[in-house]
Amino acid sequence: MGNLKDRIIRAAKLDVNLYEEVEADRSAMGQAMAVVVLSAVAAGIGSVGTTGVAGIFIGTLAALVGWYVWAYITYYVGTKLLPEPQTKADLGELLRTIGFASSPGLLRVLGIIPFLSGIIFIATGIWMLIAMVIAVRQALDYNSTPRAIGVCLIGWIIQMVIIWIVFSIFGGFGKPV
After folding, report:
1. Which residues, at least 6 apart from 5, have a Cβ–Cβ distance to it below 8 Å?
2. Backbone phi, then psi, for 14, in 5-degree steps?
3. What is d(CA 87, CA 153) in angstroms, rounded to the nearest whole number?
4. DSSP label at 111?
5. How much is the pTM?
6. d(C-alpha 137, C-alpha 151), whole Å
7. 142-155 pLDDT, tens digit each
8. What are the φ and ψ backbone dihedral angles of 84, each rounded to 5 degrees?
9. 74: exposed, middle or buried (Cβ count in 10 Å: 0-12, 13-18, 19+)
10. What are the residue ranges spanned by the domains of the chain?
11. Among 77, 86, 92, which residue's Cα sits nearest to residue 155?
């Protein structure tokens, strides 16, 4: 089991070998979950001016649920609908690699600086999406980066529809505290 700090840095550097490492390391699930939680808390702190303190807790819960949902959708799309001949993966592999793809999100804590908030969230969002493509390509043993992009895009669209439905049913999370 690798050092969490080292793994976070390597994941943020888009180190392909790190994604292969956590794909194979079944004991890294707790670390992957920790990265998702830390990234969500960083986003909550970075947006506390607009979401309030409740945003940290709601955001963390939403990030954990979103991580699982996106990993499941990605697993299904990547292994059942768009596999390559050598594709062999399980849900745990996607959860671990996608969890570490959240590493750049730790920088969202810098969103607490008012004039940097927007740029920080946009930059880290793009960075996390690139990491997600690498994570998916490695976990699904793809040779094709465009296929990994397609799987991520399909998964993101499905997840956004699910989130929209949930928000429509429950009317959002209410006013910030």
Report:
1. none
2. 65, 35
3. 18
4. G
5. 0.87
6. 9
7. 999 999 999 999 98
8. -95, 165
9. buried
10. 4-170
11. 77
